[in-house]
Q: What sequence folds into this?
Protein backbone atom coordinates (compact mmCIF):
# COMPACT_ATOMS: atom_id res chain seq x y z
CA UNK A 1 0.00 0.00 0.00
CA UNK A 2 1.42 3.37 -1.01
CA UNK A 3 2.22 5.85 1.73
CA UNK A 4 0.14 9.02 1.63
CA UNK A 5 1.94 12.32 1.13
CA UNK A 6 1.66 14.92 3.90
CA UNK A 7 0.47 17.58 1.44
CA UNK A 8 -2.29 16.80 -1.00
CA UNK A 9 -1.31 18.18 -4.39
CA UNK A 10 -3.59 19.12 -7.26
CA UNK A 11 -2.02 17.71 -10.41
CA UNK A 12 -3.13 17.97 -14.03
CA UNK A 13 -1.55 15.38 -16.32
CA UNK A 14 -1.60 16.62 -19.93
CA UNK A 15 -0.81 14.07 -22.63
CA UNK A 16 -1.58 13.44 -26.29
CA UNK A 17 -2.35 9.75 -25.64
CA UNK A 18 -3.45 7.76 -22.61
CA UNK A 19 -4.09 4.04 -22.02
CA UNK A 20 -6.76 2.65 -22.36
CA UNK A 21 -8.29 5.42 -24.49
CA UNK A 22 -5.70 5.88 -27.26
CA UNK A 23 -2.16 4.60 -27.75
CA UNK A 24 0.71 4.62 -30.23
CA UNK A 25 3.64 4.19 -27.83
CA UNK A 26 5.06 4.16 -24.31
CA UNK A 27 3.81 7.66 -23.46
CA UNK A 28 0.26 6.29 -23.34
CA UNK A 29 1.29 3.58 -20.85
CA UNK A 30 2.89 6.17 -18.56
CA UNK A 31 -0.08 8.53 -18.85
CA UNK A 32 -2.45 5.70 -17.94
CA UNK A 33 -0.45 4.29 -15.02
CA UNK A 34 1.36 7.19 -13.30
CA UNK A 35 -1.83 9.14 -12.44
CA UNK A 36 -3.22 5.99 -10.78
CA UNK A 37 -0.09 5.69 -8.64
CA UNK A 38 -0.28 9.41 -7.75
CA UNK A 39 -3.92 8.96 -6.75
CA UNK A 40 -2.90 6.04 -4.50
CA UNK A 41 -0.51 8.44 -2.79
CA UNK A 42 -3.49 10.65 -1.90
CA UNK A 43 -3.24 13.40 -4.53
CA UNK A 44 -6.01 15.03 -6.57
CA UNK A 45 -4.84 14.05 -10.04
CA UNK A 46 -6.72 14.62 -13.28
CA UNK A 47 -5.90 13.90 -16.91
CA UNK A 48 -6.55 15.87 -20.08
CA UNK A 49 -6.17 14.59 -23.64
CA UNK A 50 -7.64 15.11 -27.12
CA UNK A 51 -10.92 13.40 -28.02
CA UNK A 52 -9.79 11.29 -30.96
CA UNK A 53 -12.13 9.54 -33.37
CA UNK A 54 -10.83 6.13 -32.25
CA UNK A 55 -11.97 6.62 -28.64
CA UNK A 56 -15.15 4.66 -27.92
CA UNK A 57 -17.28 7.14 -25.99
CA UNK A 58 -19.95 4.58 -25.09
CA UNK A 59 -17.43 2.00 -23.87
CA UNK A 60 -15.68 4.51 -21.60
CA UNK A 61 -18.79 6.38 -20.46
CA UNK A 62 -17.63 9.71 -21.92
CA UNK A 63 -20.20 12.48 -21.47
CA UNK A 64 -20.29 16.08 -22.68
CA UNK A 65 -20.03 18.81 -20.05
CA UNK A 66 -21.39 22.35 -20.04
CA UNK A 67 -17.88 23.70 -20.67
CA UNK A 68 -16.15 24.75 -23.86
CA UNK A 69 -13.12 26.83 -24.86
CA UNK A 70 -12.32 28.98 -27.87
CA UNK A 71 -8.82 29.23 -29.32
CA UNK A 72 -7.67 31.56 -32.09
CA UNK A 73 -5.14 30.07 -34.54
CA UNK A 74 -3.97 32.20 -37.48
CA UNK A 75 -7.03 34.48 -37.30
CA UNK A 76 -9.47 31.53 -37.20
CA UNK A 77 -11.43 30.63 -34.08
CA UNK A 78 -11.59 26.98 -33.08
CA UNK A 79 -13.98 25.69 -30.44
CA UNK A 80 -13.16 22.85 -28.08
CA UNK A 81 -16.00 21.05 -26.34
CA UNK A 82 -15.01 19.57 -22.97
CA UNK A 83 -16.12 15.98 -22.40
CA UNK A 84 -15.50 13.98 -19.25
CA UNK A 85 -15.11 10.42 -17.95
CA UNK A 86 -12.86 8.58 -15.49
CA UNK A 87 -9.97 6.17 -15.84
CA UNK A 88 -11.65 2.73 -15.75
CA UNK A 89 -11.68 1.25 -12.24
CA UNK A 90 -10.75 4.56 -10.60
CA UNK A 91 -12.23 7.94 -9.64
CA UNK A 92 -9.59 9.85 -11.65
CA UNK A 93 -11.32 12.43 -13.90
CA UNK A 94 -10.30 12.50 -17.55
CA UNK A 95 -11.13 15.57 -19.63
CA UNK A 96 -11.34 15.18 -23.39
CA UNK A 97 -10.97 18.25 -25.59
CA UNK A 98 -13.13 17.67 -28.64
CA UNK A 99 -12.65 19.41 -31.96
CA UNK A 100 -13.74 17.32 -34.97
CA UNK A 101 -11.59 19.27 -37.45
CA UNK A 102 -8.39 18.46 -35.56
CA UNK A 103 -9.03 15.15 -33.84
CA UNK A 104 -11.63 13.11 -35.73
CA UNK A 105 -9.14 11.29 -37.94
CA UNK A 106 -8.25 7.63 -38.48
CA UNK A 107 -4.87 7.89 -36.68
CA UNK A 108 -3.47 10.07 -33.91
CA UNK A 109 -0.55 11.78 -35.65
CA UNK A 110 -0.03 10.49 -39.18
CA UNK A 111 -1.13 8.44 -42.15
CA UNK A 112 1.03 5.80 -43.88
CA UNK A 113 2.14 8.63 -46.19
CA UNK A 114 3.53 10.73 -43.35
CA UNK A 115 2.70 13.19 -40.57
CA UNK A 116 -0.54 15.17 -40.71
CA UNK A 117 0.18 18.49 -42.44
CA UNK A 118 -1.40 20.50 -39.64
CA UNK A 119 0.13 18.78 -36.58
CA UNK A 120 1.50 22.15 -35.44
CA UNK A 121 -1.99 23.69 -35.43
CA UNK A 122 -3.54 20.59 -33.84
CA UNK A 123 -1.27 20.72 -30.82
CA UNK A 124 -1.15 24.50 -30.59
CA UNK A 125 -4.90 24.17 -30.22
CA UNK A 126 -4.64 21.37 -27.66
CA UNK A 127 -2.00 23.14 -25.53
CA UNK A 128 -3.83 26.43 -25.41
CA UNK A 129 -7.18 24.70 -24.89
CA UNK A 130 -5.73 22.96 -21.80
CA UNK A 131 -4.69 26.32 -20.34
CA UNK A 132 -8.12 27.82 -21.09
CA UNK A 133 -9.96 24.73 -19.85
CA UNK A 134 -8.66 24.75 -16.28
CA UNK A 135 -9.97 28.28 -15.73
CA UNK A 136 -13.25 27.44 -17.43
CA UNK A 137 -13.91 24.39 -15.20
CA UNK A 138 -12.50 26.05 -12.07
CA UNK A 139 -9.69 23.54 -11.47
CA UNK A 140 -6.52 25.34 -10.35
CA UNK A 141 -3.75 22.74 -10.26
CA UNK A 142 -0.56 23.18 -8.25
CA UNK A 143 1.32 21.51 -11.08
CA UNK A 144 0.68 20.67 -14.72
CA UNK A 145 2.75 17.67 -15.83
CA UNK A 146 3.30 18.16 -19.58
CA UNK A 147 4.49 15.30 -21.77
CA UNK A 148 6.53 15.35 -24.99
CA UNK A 149 6.35 17.93 -27.76
CA UNK A 150 2.55 17.85 -28.08
CA UNK A 151 2.20 19.76 -24.77
CA UNK A 152 5.48 21.71 -24.93
CA UNK A 153 3.68 25.02 -25.45
CA UNK A 154 1.76 24.83 -22.15
CA UNK A 155 4.75 26.05 -20.06
CA UNK A 156 5.40 28.71 -22.74
CA UNK A 157 1.83 30.03 -22.52
CA UNK A 158 1.88 30.15 -18.72
CA UNK A 159 5.11 32.18 -18.69
CA UNK A 160 4.03 34.58 -21.48
CA UNK A 161 0.45 35.26 -22.55
CA UNK A 162 -1.15 34.11 -19.29
CA UNK A 163 1.49 35.35 -16.86
CA UNK A 164 -0.52 38.45 -15.92
CA UNK A 165 -3.68 36.48 -15.06
CA UNK A 166 -4.06 35.94 -11.30
CA UNK A 167 -5.63 32.50 -11.83
CA UNK A 168 -2.44 31.12 -13.38
CA UNK A 169 0.13 32.96 -11.26
CA UNK A 170 1.04 30.08 -8.93
CA UNK A 171 0.66 27.13 -11.33
CA UNK A 172 3.97 25.33 -11.86
CA UNK A 173 4.91 23.05 -14.74
CA UNK A 174 6.96 19.87 -14.99
CA UNK A 175 7.95 18.84 -18.50
CA UNK A 176 8.51 15.11 -19.12
CA UNK A 177 10.62 14.00 -22.10
CA UNK A 178 9.68 10.48 -23.21
CA UNK A 179 11.59 10.47 -26.50
CA UNK A 180 13.77 13.41 -27.50
CA UNK A 181 13.93 12.24 -31.12
CA UNK A 182 10.39 13.60 -31.68
CA UNK A 183 10.47 17.34 -30.99
CA UNK A 184 7.68 19.10 -32.86
CA UNK A 185 9.89 21.40 -34.97
CA UNK A 186 7.91 23.52 -37.43
CA UNK A 187 8.20 26.53 -39.70
CA UNK A 188 8.67 29.75 -37.72
CA UNK A 189 5.35 31.12 -39.02
CA UNK A 190 3.69 28.73 -36.55
CA UNK A 191 4.87 31.01 -33.73
CA UNK A 192 2.32 33.63 -34.78
CA UNK A 193 -0.30 30.91 -35.36
CA UNK A 194 0.22 30.04 -31.69
CA UNK A 195 -0.50 33.65 -30.68
CA UNK A 196 3.10 34.09 -29.49
CA UNK A 197 5.48 36.90 -30.45
CA UNK A 198 8.93 37.25 -31.95
CA UNK A 199 10.49 38.27 -28.62
CA UNK A 200 10.71 34.55 -27.70
CA UNK A 201 12.05 33.54 -31.11
CA UNK A 202 15.62 33.59 -29.83
CA UNK A 203 18.35 31.00 -29.45
CA UNK A 204 17.87 30.85 -25.67
CA UNK A 205 14.08 30.38 -25.94
CA UNK A 206 12.04 28.70 -28.68
CA UNK A 207 14.05 29.28 -31.88
CA UNK A 208 15.70 26.15 -33.32
CA UNK A 209 17.72 26.42 -36.56
CA UNK A 210 15.30 29.11 -37.79
CA UNK A 211 12.31 26.96 -36.87
CA UNK A 212 10.05 26.89 -33.84
CA UNK A 213 10.56 23.84 -31.60
CA UNK A 214 7.72 22.86 -29.23
CA UNK A 215 9.89 20.52 -27.14
CA UNK A 216 12.55 23.20 -26.72
CA UNK A 217 9.80 25.53 -25.51
CA UNK A 218 8.81 22.98 -22.87
CA UNK A 219 12.41 22.49 -21.71
CA UNK A 220 13.18 26.23 -21.51
CA UNK A 221 9.93 27.47 -19.96
CA UNK A 222 8.95 24.62 -17.57
CA UNK A 223 9.85 24.95 -13.90
CA UNK A 224 11.35 21.44 -13.81
CA UNK A 225 12.19 18.86 -16.46
CA UNK A 226 12.46 15.10 -16.25
CA UNK A 227 13.04 12.15 -18.47
CA UNK A 228 12.22 8.50 -18.05
CA UNK A 229 15.45 6.95 -16.75
CA UNK A 230 18.64 8.15 -15.11
CA UNK A 231 20.84 6.85 -17.90
CA UNK A 232 18.71 8.54 -20.58
CA UNK A 233 19.04 11.83 -18.68
CA UNK A 234 22.82 11.52 -19.02
CA UNK A 235 22.61 10.47 -22.67
CA UNK A 236 20.42 13.32 -23.92
CA UNK A 237 22.90 15.86 -22.62
CA UNK A 238 25.43 14.56 -25.17
CA UNK A 239 25.59 15.37 -28.91
CA UNK A 240 25.20 11.67 -29.75
CA UNK A 241 21.75 11.34 -28.17
CA UNK A 242 20.54 14.91 -27.67
CA UNK A 243 19.24 15.54 -31.20
CA UNK A 244 20.59 19.11 -31.07
CA UNK A 245 18.88 19.88 -27.76
CA UNK A 246 21.80 18.67 -25.63
CA UNK A 247 23.11 22.22 -25.10
CA UNK A 248 19.67 23.43 -24.00
CA UNK A 249 19.45 20.58 -21.50
CA UNK A 250 22.98 21.16 -20.19
CA UNK A 251 22.02 24.80 -19.53
CA UNK A 252 19.22 23.52 -17.31
CA UNK A 253 20.90 20.41 -15.93
CA UNK A 254 20.26 21.45 -12.30
CA UNK A 255 16.54 21.30 -13.08
CA UNK A 256 16.56 18.03 -15.04
CA UNK A 257 16.12 14.66 -13.33
CA UNK A 258 15.76 11.07 -14.51
CA UNK A 259 12.86 9.07 -13.06
CA UNK A 260 12.54 5.50 -14.23
CA UNK A 261 9.13 4.51 -15.54
CA UNK A 262 7.29 1.87 -13.59
CA UNK A 263 5.13 -0.99 -14.73
CA UNK A 264 1.45 -1.55 -14.03
CA UNK A 265 1.43 -4.99 -12.42
CA UNK A 266 -2.36 -5.10 -12.46
CA UNK A 267 -2.02 -5.52 -16.24
CA UNK A 268 1.31 -7.36 -16.32
CA UNK A 269 1.51 -10.29 -13.91
CA UNK A 270 1.86 -13.90 -15.08
CA UNK A 271 -0.15 -15.09 -12.07
CA UNK A 272 -3.29 -13.12 -13.02
CA UNK A 273 -2.84 -12.18 -16.70
CA UNK A 274 -6.15 -13.13 -18.35
CA UNK A 275 -4.62 -13.09 -21.85
CA UNK A 276 -2.14 -15.91 -21.18
CA UNK A 277 -2.66 -19.45 -22.42
CA UNK A 278 -1.62 -20.58 -18.89
CA UNK A 279 -0.94 -18.63 -15.70
CA UNK A 280 2.13 -19.28 -13.59
CA UNK A 281 4.35 -17.89 -10.84
CA UNK A 282 7.89 -18.39 -9.53
CA UNK A 283 6.56 -21.39 -7.61
CA UNK A 284 4.82 -22.90 -10.65
CA UNK A 285 7.36 -21.85 -13.28
CA UNK A 286 6.98 -25.16 -15.15
CA UNK A 287 3.58 -23.85 -16.37
CA UNK A 288 5.48 -21.29 -18.42
CA UNK A 289 6.45 -24.11 -20.76
CA UNK A 290 2.75 -24.66 -21.58
CA UNK A 291 2.51 -21.05 -22.77
CA UNK A 292 5.57 -21.62 -24.94
CA UNK A 293 4.09 -24.76 -26.51
CA UNK A 294 0.84 -22.99 -27.39
CA UNK A 295 2.68 -19.91 -28.68
CA UNK A 296 4.81 -22.04 -30.98
CA UNK A 297 1.73 -23.92 -32.20
CA UNK A 298 -0.09 -20.63 -32.95
CA UNK A 299 2.93 -19.55 -35.00
CA UNK A 300 3.11 -22.80 -36.97
CA UNK A 301 6.28 -23.93 -35.20
CA UNK A 302 7.07 -27.26 -33.59
CA UNK A 303 7.93 -27.47 -29.89
CA UNK A 304 11.37 -29.06 -29.41
CA UNK A 305 12.47 -29.70 -25.85
CA UNK A 306 15.73 -27.94 -24.99
CA UNK A 307 15.49 -25.42 -27.84
CA UNK A 308 15.16 -21.85 -26.54
CA UNK A 309 12.59 -19.43 -27.95
CA UNK A 310 13.63 -15.83 -28.58
CA UNK A 311 10.79 -13.26 -28.55
CA UNK A 312 10.51 -9.70 -29.86
CA UNK A 313 7.60 -7.26 -29.52
CA UNK A 314 8.48 -3.94 -31.07
CA UNK A 315 7.84 -1.06 -33.37
CA UNK A 316 9.73 -2.10 -36.50
CA UNK A 317 12.24 0.65 -37.20
CA UNK A 318 15.95 1.42 -36.99
CA UNK A 319 15.76 2.87 -33.46
CA UNK A 320 14.98 -0.63 -32.24
CA UNK A 321 18.20 -2.08 -33.68
CA UNK A 322 16.41 -4.22 -36.24
CA UNK A 323 19.11 -3.45 -38.82
CA UNK A 324 21.38 -5.50 -36.50
CA UNK A 325 19.05 -8.45 -36.77
CA UNK A 326 19.05 -8.11 -40.56
CA UNK A 327 22.86 -8.34 -40.53
CA UNK A 328 23.11 -11.47 -38.36
CA UNK A 329 19.85 -13.33 -38.99
CA UNK A 330 21.53 -16.17 -40.90
CA UNK A 331 24.04 -16.64 -38.05
CA UNK A 332 21.16 -16.54 -35.55
CA UNK A 333 19.25 -19.19 -37.42
CA UNK A 334 22.30 -21.46 -37.41
CA UNK A 335 22.10 -21.44 -33.62
CA UNK A 336 19.77 -23.97 -32.06
CA UNK A 337 17.00 -21.42 -31.39
CA UNK A 338 13.51 -20.42 -32.52
CA UNK A 339 12.33 -16.84 -32.95
CA UNK A 340 8.84 -15.25 -32.73
CA UNK A 341 8.20 -11.58 -33.35
CA UNK A 342 5.27 -9.17 -33.32
CA UNK A 343 5.14 -5.61 -34.56
CA UNK A 344 4.48 -3.10 -37.30
CA UNK A 345 6.47 -0.18 -38.64
CA UNK A 346 8.67 0.48 -41.65
CA UNK A 347 7.59 -1.33 -44.80
CA UNK A 348 11.10 -2.62 -45.49
CA UNK A 349 11.09 -4.53 -42.20
CA UNK A 350 7.68 -5.99 -43.02
CA UNK A 351 9.15 -7.33 -46.27
CA UNK A 352 12.37 -8.47 -44.60
CA UNK A 353 10.72 -10.53 -41.89
CA UNK A 354 8.13 -12.02 -44.26
CA UNK A 355 10.99 -13.05 -46.56
CA UNK A 356 12.89 -14.58 -43.63
CA UNK A 357 9.78 -16.47 -42.58
CA UNK A 358 9.67 -18.16 -45.99
CA UNK A 359 13.41 -18.87 -45.73
CA UNK A 360 13.23 -20.33 -42.17
CA UNK A 361 9.66 -21.64 -41.84
CA UNK A 362 10.55 -24.05 -39.02
CA UNK A 363 12.42 -21.53 -36.91
CA UNK A 364 10.71 -18.19 -37.36
CA UNK A 365 7.20 -16.98 -36.44
CA UNK A 366 6.29 -13.58 -37.89
CA UNK A 367 3.27 -11.43 -36.88
CA UNK A 368 3.23 -8.13 -38.79
CA UNK A 369 0.43 -6.53 -36.78
CA UNK A 370 -0.35 -5.47 -33.26
CA UNK A 371 -2.28 -8.01 -31.23
CA UNK A 372 -2.38 -7.59 -27.45
CA UNK A 373 -3.01 -11.26 -26.74
CA UNK A 374 -0.06 -12.38 -28.88
CA UNK A 375 2.11 -9.72 -27.21
CA UNK A 376 1.30 -10.99 -23.72
CA UNK A 377 2.02 -14.56 -24.73
CA UNK A 378 5.34 -13.69 -26.39
CA UNK A 379 6.43 -12.01 -23.14
CA UNK A 380 5.34 -15.11 -21.21
CA UNK A 381 6.10 -17.96 -23.60
CA UNK A 382 9.56 -16.92 -24.80
CA UNK A 383 12.71 -17.93 -22.96
CA UNK A 384 14.56 -14.76 -23.98
CA UNK A 385 13.39 -11.30 -24.99
CA UNK A 386 15.32 -9.23 -27.52
CA UNK A 387 15.79 -5.41 -27.25
CA UNK A 388 18.90 -4.36 -29.23
CA UNK A 389 17.83 -0.69 -29.35
CA UNK A 390 20.07 2.06 -30.71
CA UNK A 391 18.57 4.23 -27.95
CA UNK A 392 15.79 3.47 -25.48
CA UNK A 393 14.61 6.24 -23.12
CA UNK A 394 13.18 3.74 -20.64
CA UNK A 395 11.74 0.68 -22.30
CA UNK A 396 8.77 -1.30 -21.07
CA UNK A 397 9.45 -4.63 -22.77
CA UNK A 398 12.42 -5.54 -20.58
CA UNK A 399 10.44 -4.75 -17.39
CA UNK A 400 7.57 -6.96 -18.52
CA UNK A 401 9.85 -9.79 -19.63
CA UNK A 402 11.64 -9.81 -16.26
CA UNK A 403 8.33 -10.19 -14.44
CA UNK A 404 7.39 -13.08 -16.76
CA UNK A 405 10.67 -14.95 -16.21
CA UNK A 406 11.79 -14.24 -19.78
CA UNK A 407 15.45 -13.23 -19.85
CA UNK A 408 16.14 -9.93 -21.64
CA UNK A 409 18.99 -9.53 -24.12
CA UNK A 410 19.54 -5.76 -24.41
CA UNK A 411 21.91 -3.09 -25.55
CA UNK A 412 23.43 -1.03 -22.74
CA UNK A 413 21.58 2.24 -23.33
CA UNK A 414 18.97 4.42 -21.57
CA UNK A 415 16.51 2.61 -19.34
CA UNK A 416 17.78 -0.76 -20.55
CA UNK A 417 21.13 -0.02 -18.88
CA UNK A 418 19.35 1.04 -15.67
CA UNK A 419 17.23 -2.11 -15.37
CA UNK A 420 19.08 -5.05 -16.99
CA UNK A 421 22.40 -6.15 -15.52
CA UNK A 422 24.67 -8.74 -17.10
CA UNK A 423 24.46 -12.06 -15.26
CA UNK A 424 27.70 -12.79 -13.42
CA UNK A 425 28.41 -16.50 -13.28
CA UNK A 426 30.68 -16.10 -10.23
CA UNK A 427 28.53 -13.92 -8.00
CA UNK A 428 25.22 -15.23 -9.43
CA UNK A 429 23.98 -11.65 -9.63
CA UNK A 430 22.32 -10.09 -12.65
CA UNK A 431 19.09 -10.58 -14.58
CA UNK A 432 19.96 -10.70 -18.28
CA UNK A 433 22.50 -10.43 -21.08
CA UNK A 434 23.91 -7.06 -22.08
CA UNK A 435 26.02 -5.83 -24.99
CA UNK A 436 27.42 -2.32 -25.29
CA UNK A 437 28.85 -1.83 -28.79
CA UNK A 438 26.48 -0.48 -31.40
CA UNK A 439 27.12 -3.25 -33.91
CA UNK A 440 25.44 -6.55 -34.85
CA UNK A 441 28.36 -8.75 -33.82
CA UNK A 442 28.14 -7.75 -30.17
CA UNK A 443 24.44 -8.58 -30.33
CA UNK A 444 25.20 -12.00 -31.84
CA UNK A 445 27.72 -12.67 -29.08
CA UNK A 446 25.07 -11.84 -26.42
CA UNK A 447 22.53 -14.17 -28.09
CA UNK A 448 25.12 -16.96 -28.23
CA UNK A 449 25.97 -16.46 -24.56
CA UNK A 450 22.27 -16.63 -23.65
CA UNK A 451 21.71 -19.74 -25.78
CA UNK A 452 24.70 -21.46 -24.14
CA UNK A 453 23.50 -20.49 -20.65
CA UNK A 454 20.05 -21.90 -21.42
CA UNK A 455 21.56 -25.39 -21.55
CA UNK A 456 22.40 -25.18 -17.84
CA UNK A 457 18.95 -25.36 -16.25
CA UNK A 458 20.24 -24.49 -12.76
CA UNK A 459 21.88 -21.30 -14.01
CA UNK A 460 18.90 -20.40 -16.19
CA UNK A 461 16.40 -20.77 -13.35
CA UNK A 462 18.59 -18.59 -11.16
CA UNK A 463 18.61 -15.80 -13.77
CA UNK A 464 14.83 -16.14 -14.13
CA UNK A 465 14.32 -15.89 -10.38
CA UNK A 466 16.64 -12.88 -10.14
CA UNK A 467 14.41 -11.07 -12.63
CA UNK A 468 11.02 -12.21 -11.35
CA UNK A 469 11.63 -11.05 -7.80
CA UNK A 470 12.47 -7.47 -8.87
CA UNK A 471 9.89 -4.77 -8.29
CA UNK A 472 9.40 -1.99 -10.83
CA UNK A 473 5.93 -0.96 -9.60
CA UNK A 474 4.84 2.60 -10.25
CA UNK A 475 4.60 3.43 -6.53
CA UNK A 476 8.31 4.18 -6.11
CA UNK A 477 8.47 6.23 -9.31
CA UNK A 478 5.34 8.17 -8.33
CA UNK A 479 7.01 9.21 -5.08
CA UNK A 480 9.93 10.62 -7.10
CA UNK A 481 7.46 12.55 -9.27
CA UNK A 482 5.80 14.02 -6.18
CA UNK A 483 9.21 15.13 -4.90
CA UNK A 484 9.83 16.81 -8.27
CA UNK A 485 6.42 18.53 -8.20
CA UNK A 486 7.19 19.83 -4.70
CA UNK A 487 10.58 21.15 -5.86
CA UNK A 488 8.82 22.95 -8.72
CA UNK A 489 6.47 24.48 -6.14
CA UNK A 490 9.37 25.49 -3.89
CA UNK A 491 8.34 23.13 -1.12
CA UNK A 492 11.39 22.19 0.94
CA UNK A 493 12.06 18.47 0.91
CA UNK A 494 11.80 16.77 4.31
CA UNK A 495 14.43 14.32 5.46
CA UNK A 496 13.17 10.75 5.25
A:
Amino acid sequence: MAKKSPKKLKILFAASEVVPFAKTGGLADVAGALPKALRELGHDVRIVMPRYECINGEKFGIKPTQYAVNVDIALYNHRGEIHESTVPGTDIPVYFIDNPEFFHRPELYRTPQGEYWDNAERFIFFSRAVVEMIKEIGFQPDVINCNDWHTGLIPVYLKTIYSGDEFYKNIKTVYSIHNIAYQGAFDKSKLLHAGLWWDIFTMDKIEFYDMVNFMKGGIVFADKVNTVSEKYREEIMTPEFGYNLDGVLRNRQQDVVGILNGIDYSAWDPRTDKLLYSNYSEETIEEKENVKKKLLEENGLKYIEGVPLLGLVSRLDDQKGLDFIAAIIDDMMRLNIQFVLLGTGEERYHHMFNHLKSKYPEKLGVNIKFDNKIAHNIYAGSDMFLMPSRFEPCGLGQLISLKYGTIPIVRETGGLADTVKQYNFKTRQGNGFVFSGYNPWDLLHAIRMAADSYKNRTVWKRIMNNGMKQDFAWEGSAEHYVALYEKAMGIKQQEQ
User: Anything to note?
Assistant: The radius of gyration is 23 Å.
